[in-house]
Amino acid sequence: MCISSILRSGNSQAVRIPKEFQLAGDKVEIQKRGDALVLRPKKRSWTALIESLEKFTDDFMRKGRNQHPVQKRNRAFS
Hints:
- The structure is a single chain.
- The chain is of the alpha+beta class.
- The chain has a domain at 6-47.
- It is built from one helix and four strands; from the N terminus they run ββββα.
- The strands form two sheets. Strands 1-2 form a two-stranded antiparallel sheet. A two-stranded antiparallel sheet has the order 3-4.
- It is elongated, with a radius of gyration of 22 Å.
C-alpha cells in the first residue's frame, strides 16, 4: 500500500498520485464505493461501448427476448 498527500485548493481537494500509479490522459472518471474512491482514465465514449460488446457470449439472446406487447394509451395532447 502506498500513502500520499491530500492538497487543498479552496473547497476542492487534489491527491498527489505517485509515478508508479500515473494514469494516461488528462481526465479521470471518479466513482465512490463505500469510503473508497476509484479513479479510471476517462475513455472516449465509443471506446467503452465497443469494449463492452466483447463481454457478450455468442448465445446471448439466441432465443430472442420476451417483450410485452405495446400498451394502447390515450393521447395526452390533441
